[in-house]
TrEMBL record:
<feature type="transmembrane region" description="Helical">
    <location>
        <begin position="191"/>
        <end position="211"/>
    </location>
</feature>
<feature type="compositionally biased region" description="Basic and acidic residues">
    <location>
        <begin position="1"/>
        <end position="11"/>
    </location>
</feature>
<feature type="transmembrane region" description="Helical">
    <location>
        <begin position="35"/>
        <end position="58"/>
    </location>
</feature>
<feature type="transmembrane region" description="Helical">
    <location>
        <begin position="284"/>
        <end position="308"/>
    </location>
</feature>
<keyword id="KW-0813">Transport</keyword>
<feature type="transmembrane region" description="Helical">
    <location>
        <begin position="375"/>
        <end position="394"/>
    </location>
</feature>
<feature type="transmembrane region" description="Helical">
    <location>
        <begin position="73"/>
        <end position="91"/>
    </location>
</feature>
<dbReference type="InterPro" id="IPR020846">
    <property type="entry name" value="MFS_dom"/>
</dbReference>
<keyword id="KW-1133">Transmembrane helix</keyword>
<dbReference type="Pfam" id="PF07690">
    <property type="entry name" value="MFS_1"/>
</dbReference>
<dbReference type="InterPro" id="IPR036259">
    <property type="entry name" value="MFS_trans_sf"/>
</dbReference>
<feature type="region of interest" description="Disordered">
    <location>
        <begin position="1"/>
        <end position="23"/>
    </location>
</feature>
<feature type="transmembrane region" description="Helical">
    <location>
        <begin position="161"/>
        <end position="185"/>
    </location>
</feature>
<feature type="transmembrane region" description="Helical">
    <location>
        <begin position="455"/>
        <end position="477"/>
    </location>
</feature>
<keyword id="KW-0812">Transmembrane</keyword>
<feature type="domain" description="Major facilitator superfamily (MFS) profile">
    <location>
        <begin position="37"/>
        <end position="483"/>
    </location>
</feature>
<keyword id="KW-0472">Membrane</keyword>
């Protein structure tokens, strides 16, 4: 097994070692077809975040309409978050074993039906039960989206495509509260769920009509013949197939190893996501991301509750303060995607390796940690400084317009690195991340207001900046030793 030192060494001639083992074309899809597949996946992933945030403005109206208390309606939020932290573990490995397409169809179908039922719900127990069903159905689509990215994009181009999913998820914090408030004000709270039903139903129709099966553990690179259920109803719109016959994998298709090298499992294992945490390199970067997500969640949760009393904002103005934060993050995702692709290319060139976005790279022997994390240090340092500034600016009630967009950049780097590290089971790996970050953020949110009351706004966010600093140290550990840990785990 090659070591990190071997991977770091530069061959005497750029083609002397790489030409004989030049990898095959990674995917037969054209660039527009790749963008279409990733866009459909991003659309489905959008609902995983939107479903929670669009709900908040309707809480008072729901309480009045269902003749219950606001605290009970808040319980539906807590239950939704709890289920959404665990459900991706059920969905992620299922998508790696059974395929992306059937899991998307089931998840979106159940989610659309649940929204339809909530829209006509008349009792609180019905609402509570349906919110659980919503979370079970849709929260795993974020994990599947990153699996689809790994299916059709090579590591050299993966950053730009991952940015599209980050855009879809990042726009929800801005659009969700505004859209939910507008629908509640104009037509009543049921129209929030009518909107989600119609939007998710349209996504389901798009998946059925246009999205082919892409899971490389099932269809290889996808160039061979596909079984009928693996094909979209309008396959010619996406691409012509190499073979017209239904049946197994075509001869020209590249079949990659299953979720665990050589493993022939036929049944999904919900605990697969947990077992991925046994690898120290996975644990380190998942914990680092969990800390960053916790800080991001605390900032989002505190925007309205702090800005309204400090600056005397109205409820409508309180909704608008999310716009700069979300807009900055959206812009950041597109810039950072290009930066990541360029950093990957530079890392390949530095080691005398070929750079071809159309071909795959041997991720088991290439130091992906250094290629991905090499661009994260300046954004992480600025993020620490900005979080501290955010807290003390509010403490002294000064003008504050820091959107902390660099956290989005760190999150995009992390998600892409996690896919590269676990390229045989990317959806399960993202599900493991979702569990950890959901648990950490839920714990911190429960103590946030008490921290603000006891030590003040400034010191609370100084502590949050400390969490970002710890995340940076963890990234540094993975940058230095992640490849050795990963290779030792692969040997086992």
């Amino acid at each position: 097994m090659p070591t990190a030192r071997d991977a770091e060494s530069k061959p005497s001639h750029p083609n002397s070692q790489t030409t004989p083992s030049l990898p095959a074309q990674y995917s037969p899809f054209s660039t527009p077809q790749k963008w279409t597949i990733v866009a459909i996946s991003a659309y489905a992933a959008w609902f995983s975040t939107l479903s929670s945030l669009i709900y908040y403005p309707a809480i008072p109206s729901l309480a009045a309409s269902l003749h219950t208390s606001v605290s009970k309606i808040n319980l539906t939020v807590t239950v939704y978050m709890a289920v959404a932290s665990i459900a991706p573990a059920l969905v992620g490995d299922t998508a790696d074993i059974l395929g992306r397409r059937p899991v998307y169809i089931v998840c979106l179908g159940v989610y659309a039906a649940a929204n339809l039922a909530v829209a006509v719900a008349e009792t609180y127990p019905t609402l509570l039960g349906l919110r659980v069903l919503q979370a079970l159905a849709i929260s795993g689509t974020f994990s599947i989206a990153y699996g689809a990215i790994a299916d059709v994009t090579s590591p050299a181009e993966r950053g730009s495509f991952a940015a599209l999913v980050s855009f879809a998820v990042g726009v929800a914090p801005t659009l969700g509260p505004i859209l939910g408030g507008a629908l509640t004000y104009a037509a009543g709270w049921p129209w929030i769920f009518w909107f989600l039903c119609i939007a998710s139903g349209s996504c389901l129709l798009i998946v059925i009509l246009f999205l082919p099966e892409t899971c490389r553990g099932i269809v290889g690179d996808g160039s061979g013949s596909l079984r009928p259920y693996q094909r979209p109803l309008l396959p010619g719109v996406m691409r012509p197939y190499t073979h017209d016959q239904a049946g197994g994998l075509g001869d020209s298709a590249e079949r990659t190893p299953g979720p665990v090298g050589g493993d022939k499992r036929r049944f999904p294992n919900p605990l697969r996501s947990i077992t991925l945490l046994a690898r120290p390199d996975n644990t380190i970067i998942i914990t680092a991301c969990g800390l960053l997500y916790t800080v991001y969640t605390c900032i989002m949760a505190s925007l309205a509750t702090l800005f309204v009393p400090i600056y005397g904002l109205s409820q409508w103005e309180a909704g608008l303060i999310y716009i700069p934060f979300g807009t900055g993050g959206i812009v950041s995702t597109f810039i950072s995607g290009r930066i990541m692709d360029r950093a990957w290319r530079d890392a390949r060139i530095k080691r005398g390796l070929p750079v071809d976005k159309g071909r795959g790279d041997d991720l088991d022997t290439f130091p992906v940690e250094r290629a991905r994390l090499g661009v994260i240090w300046l954004p992480m340092g600025l993020t620490v400084a900005f979080v501290v500034g955010f807290g003390w600016a509010l403490h002294f009630q000064t003008h504050m317009a820091v959107p902390l967009v660099l956290q989005f950049f760190a999150g995009l780097v992390y998600n892409t690195l996690l896919v590269d590290k676990n390229h045989r089971s990317p959806a399960a790996a993202q599900a493991a991340s979702n569990i950890i970050r959901g648990a950490l953020s839920a714990i911190m949110i429960s103590f946030l207001q008490n921290m603000i009351d006891r030590i003040g706004i400034g010191w609370t966010f100084t502590f949050q900046a400390g969490l970002c600093l710890i995340a940076a140290v963890l990234f540094l550990m993975d940058h230095r030793s992640g490849m050795q840990w990963r290779q030792k785990s692969n040997e086992k």
